[in-house]
Write a structure and sequence with these properties.
By secondary structure, this protein is mostly helical. It has 2 domains: 1-564, no CATH class; 571-672, no CATH class. The chain is 69% helix and 1% strand. The protein is built from 30 helices and 2 strands. A two-stranded antiparallel ribbon has the order 1-2. A hairpin with a 3-residue loop joins β1 and β2. α10 (222-234) crosses α12 (259-276) and α11 (240-256) packs parallel to α13 (281-295). It is globular and about 70 Å long.
Length: 672
């Protein structure tokens, strides 16, 4: 390991990885360890029973009852795993046992009455007992969110969750229908649109299996195999592990169409590999979240959404895939540039040949793990069994574990793994229950249904304002819907308004798809970033902020291609090539500005001069990449001149600081 790597990680102040967390080190003892083991096994068995529809002893659970039981179990584990001062592990005080018991009791009440609540419409007219139980559950969720997600996430959730009580007092487009406190709180707990809405349904139907798969992969030697293989191939390159991760995650995300499952699948391998080569936990998690988010936007498959888009536009699927290729290239090129700049700025030079594992040795010891990923990919892509795939992969891993004696699990090792899985699931559950409160507030106030018309009205005839309003609208809906559901809704409600402004129809539909995706890396929701942060042991909110910066082009690219259809292939070949070259140069400069290092030239350092230079470089890159659309009042040539003028000064500033980096070293460099 390079000598600077541990220090860099410590300087970033990130939390330890799952492998190094208290649960994994066995710091849960006695009754707490037994309770976490029992709760985790119960939760996993419940998920298997539900997802495989086993109907043991004739038991069939409606979805609401299943989610209440699951949420209660892992919320209780959260109180046993996280202390009131936000520490992980350690002795469990009596009041945390009381909170854990309360979580089980109140969730048990709602599970018991789930069918009655559904039939009688309790979400709108809850009886007194249900109101008080709802308040208790609401307070438990808030405290669980604070412990697992931190104070910043807690404050966001608290403010948004109470929004329905004063929505009618808010101005203009953010005004909504108000609800009394005793109506809003039961709605949050009893409706399928809030805490137990889409985020928890994704958890109960998808996340559990992938968390279990990732933990078992690490414990049975699979993580070491893939880490060794990745390091053998790219460990000597600057930032190599992260560069490989962005392409691997992008490819996997394109096939699966699910950001969360992609984070949980590839992140189990990529995040430890990045951290081992010197990346901070936060940056590794942000890289994985951004790469996985981009996968859904990347041909050839783009999940299920591309096929839906082809139906909406009545165009062949291949045309949709080709149109999405250039924006995806810009996005991943930006990730590549920023990762390289991050590594250069922090001196992450890679490992020496003596420190690197041998590829042949890694393949000889662990080639069987390739079958596990082959099975996982086959089930997810060919059979579309995304929900069940990780459980089959776990079963194959357990069988292989008995074959590969070197990594065979001991009883204590299995117990430590289960405790680690329980803590990870509890952390994610507590955060997702809180995020659900945000989604529920939009639903309860009716804001989700009126915001589109209000924003379009406010934009008037200004195309850029209309696009900005449309972007905000797509972002809001993206917080509460799956990718495909969000796209379908926006294609019906928002796309016609943008098309009426004279914008290219195909570009408009890609625009709303992109902006419907940004919530996966944008706080306060940032489901993809939060899931990656859980795996990396990093702060959820700080990871979300890092992901916003790293994935910054995802906010810019939609405006570029919707204003210049050449960037989606809707122009002659020469015009497409010119626009692409300009956009790549612009994205290169923007990425350098965001990370503070211009590849082939040098770094900007710190201080006011560096801030000014990076700001000028950012706008210079934006001007070069900008389409020169008529509403901007500037033609293509003028924008290029402005961009070159703005970029020349910062480039000279970086060069004169003397921290030059040869261009060949921007792609790979051996340690000195």
């Amino acid at each position: 390991m390079p000598p600077h790597s541990p220090a860099a990680a410590q300087a970033e102040g990130d939390k330890s990885t799952l492998k190094d967390d208290p649960a994994e080190r066995g710091e849960f003892h006695g009754a707490a360890r037994i309770a976490i083991l029992a709760g985790t096994l119960t939760g996993v068995f419940l998920a298997i029973h539900q997802l495989f529809n086993l109907q043991l002893l004739g038991v069939v659970l409606i979805e609401g009852r299943y989610l209440y039981i699951l949420g209660g179990i892992f919320l209780a584990i959260a109180f046993l795993s996280f202390r009131i001062d936000l520490r992980k592990g350690g002795p469990v005080p009596l009041y945390d046992w009381v909170l854990a018991a309360a979580a089980l009791a109140v969730s048990g009440y709602f599970a018991w009455t789930a069918e009655t609540a559904l039939d009688s419409g309790w979400e709108y007219a809850a009886p007194t007992t249900a109101q008080w139980a709802s308040l208790a559950f609401y307070l438990l969720i808030l405290e669980g969110t604070r412990r697992a997600g931190g104070v910043t996430v807690f404050l966001f959730v608290l403010a948004f969750s109470l929004y329905p009580t004063f929505a009618d007092q808010m101005p203009g487009p953010i005004s909504g229908f108000a609800s009394p406190f005793w109506d809003a709180i039961p709605y949050h707990i009893l409706s399928a649109e809030s805490s137990f809405g889409i985020p928890m349904r994704a958890f109960g139907n998808l996340v559990i299996g992938f968390i279990l798969f990732g933990a078992l992969l690490q414990r049975t030697g699979g993580g070491q195999f893939f880490n060794d293989l990745a390091l053998a191939m790219v460990g000597r390159f600057r930032g190599g592990a992260a560069k490989v991760a962005i392409f691997a995650s992008g490819f996997m995300g394109s096939m699966s169409g699910s950001v969360i499952s992609n984070v949980l699948t590839t992140g189990a391998v990529s995040i430890p590999a990045m951290k081992k080569t010197g990346f901070s936990a936060r940056y590794a998690a942000a890289t994985e979240a951004c790469a996985s988010t981009g996968g859904v936007l990347t041909p050839p498959i783009m999940g299920a959404t591309a096929f839906v888009m082809a139906s909406f536009l009545s165009r062949p699927y291949i045309e949709i895939a080709l149109a999405a290729a250039i924006p995806a290239l810009l996005y991943y090129f930006s990730l590549f540039i920023q990762i390289d700049a991050y590594a250069a700025r922090r001196g992450l030079r890679g490992l020496t040949r003596e420190e690197l594992p041998k590829a042949a040795t890694a393949l000889r010891d662990g080639w069987l793990y390739l079958f596990v990923f082959g099975l996982l990919i086959f089930l997810m892509v060919a059979l579309r069994q995304e929900t069940l795939a990780p459980f089959y992969a776990v079963a194959l891993l357990l069988v292989m574990n008995q074959v590969l004696k070197r990594h065979r699990l001991t009883l204590k090792g299995a117990g430590d793994m289960i405790v680690g899985v329980g803590r990870a699931l509890a952390e994610l559950t507590a955060v997702l229950l809180g995020i659900g409160l945000i989604v529920g507030s939009f639903s309860a106030t009716g804001l989700a249904g009126t915001l589109v018309n209000d924003l379009v009205f406010l934009a008037g005839d200004n195309v850029l304002a209309l696009l900005a309003m449309g972007a905000v609208t797509a972002f809001v809906f993206g917080m509460g819907m799956t990718v495909t559901a969000c796209y379908i809704f926006l294609a019906v409600v928002l796309a016609p308004a943008l098309e009426q402004a004279g914008l290219n129809r195909l570009a408009v539909h890609l625009f709303i798809l992109y902006w419907g995706m940004v919530s996966f890396i944008t706080p306060p929701v940032a489901l993809g970033a939060f899931a990656a942060a859980t795996m990396a042991g990093a702060s959820a909110m700080r990871t979300g902020v890092e992901a916003m910066k790293l994935g910054g082009v995802i906010y810019i690219a939609p405006f570029l291609f919707v204003l210049n259809p050449a960037l989606v292939g809707e122009a002659p070949a020469g015009e497409v090539a010119t626009a692409l070259i300009a956009a790549l140069i612009g994205v290169w400069l923007i990425g350098a500005a965001l990370q503070g290092h211009l590849a082939g030239v040098g770094g900007f350092g710190d201080g006011l001069g560096a801030v000014a230079a990076r700001t000028a470089l950012f706008f210079g890159g934006l001007a070069i990449a900008a389409p020169g659309f008529e509403v901007m009042g500037l033609d293509r040539s003028t924008l290029l001149v402005i961009g070159a003028a703005l970029s020349a000064g910062p480039a000279l500033y970086a060069w004169r600081r003397g921290e030059t980096t040869p261009l060949r070293d921007s792609l790979a460099s051996e340690p000195k």
